Structure formats: C-alpha cells, structure tokens
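Please go through this protein, sequence plus structure tokens, and consider how the sequence yields the tokens. Keep your notes short.
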Amino acid sequence: MKKLNGKIISSVGGIYRTETADGLLDCRARGIFRNKSVSPAVGDNVCVITDDNAEPVIDSIGERRNYLVRPPLANLDMILFVVSSCEPAPNAYIIDKLIAIFESKDIETALIFTKTDKQGCAELADVYAGAGYKCFFTDINKDAAEIREYAAGKVTALIGNSGVGKSSLMNRIFPELCSETGEISRKLGRGRHTTREVRMYPLDGGYIADTPGFSTVDIERYGRIPKEELADCFREFAPYIGKCRFSDCAHLKEIGCEVTAALAAGKIPQSRYESYSRLYTETAENEKKH
C-alpha cells in the first residue's frame, strides 16, 4: 500500500481523476465521505491510497480555502466570468449577484466580454473596471494570449451563462482542445450545455477549470450571503462602510447613510446599487422563511 498527495482535476460519475507524483490516477472516494455528507471536488488537495490489487482510493481531503457547491470546485484563486455582449444579452443583476458570492468566498473575479464584434459593451464594462475588476474583450476572431497570461500560475474557473461562448473561448485558450461547440438557440436566448463535466486543464503553472453553462435558476446553488455581510461584497461601498449614522445601516432608506449619499453624488453606479438593494431584499425574505 502507498499513500500519495494529489489534486483532483476532473470528476465524472464518481470517478475522480487525480494528478499525483505517480501520474494521473482514476480514483474512487472512501464510503466514509458519504456518511459525513462530504464529496470530493475538482480542485481538492487529497491523499490517495494505492494498492497493486485494488483501484486507487481517495482517503482524505485537505482543508479548503473556498468551495463552490455548483459547479463543485475547491481552492480557487480566480473566476474568469464570461459575459456575452449579445445573444444572450448580459443580465447585470446575475453578474452582480455572482460577483458578490465570489467576493464572499475571497475569490478574485475577472470579466471576459465575448462577441464584441457583434455588439460593443464598453459602458457595461466600465462599471466593473471602475470597481477594480479586470475586464477583457474578445470575439471568435481574436486569440486568447492576454487571458492566458493573466491566468498563468492561478487556479481558475471559467464560468458563464449557457451560450456565452465558453467552449469557443476554451478552444482559443487551449488550441489543442477540440471541445464541442453548441449552436445558439435564438428562440431560447441561450446555448446548449456543451460542457457536461468539471475538468481542470494545466496552464503555465496553474489550471483553468471548464464548467457547464448555468441557467438563471442555477445561480442559487453557487452560494448565499447573509444580508449583514452583503455590503462588504460590493467593492464600491468600501469607502463608506462604517461611516453611516447608524451602525446597523442596511444602506437602503436610512437617514444618514453614506452609501446612498455616495450613490446620489454619482460615486456608486446606479446599476450596482440596484443589484445590491434587490439582493438584500431577496436575502432578507429568504432568511425570514428559514
């Protein structure tokens, strides 16, 4: 029997492909994980037990820096959030909600705006660039050298709505890949789910994980933020947090709120504040139900 440290780089049907000093091993997880309601995830650092007469088994999972339930990913440095400038049109609320969730998990977010040859999105991108998020602009005719360079050495996940062009982008980041590219369904305004598994690909000392495209209903599974912590997940609010008249200010309609004062002064984008307000209200309602 031998013990090896490794990193899970893909997960399909209960088989976890793990990168170890002995090469790639296809492993199953010990039954004890099921009893503890824990499942290994792509990105997990694990200990694998190998035996000449049995298939490799994941014996333990290392402590996670962060974790996403859907897609099941652990220990991420960065999210490359793919947003289409059209077909489907960008949804600012969904973008803001997911960015807030990634902020709550201390995961850096960069945005990649696709299909910019069909429609520009500079005004939308300016909102996020102004908050300090790195933004890229690309289309099917551009290479991905700048994105590759930015992601080098990091553990990154490529995430985006169905139909935004993630598969095409992956093909440009990794020209050697021949992943299936789905056609856009104009009627539904979204693409087919062409990526059916979570898998990491090595990239210049790091990894990029390709993930299934999500639909609007899926975003509830990425994570939830307590309403009291929500303001900390909107970077534009940072200069004003703690300066309001009331220490428990929700930054909605309270007297002496520095956040709403900054909004009125044009220091916080209206779209970002509207997303915060809507998300706070929805979170408060959900907390009452539970």
The helical segments are 31-35, 92-104, 122-129, 145-151, 166-173, 227-230, 258-264, 270-289. The CA atoms of residues 134 and 166 lie 18 Å apart.
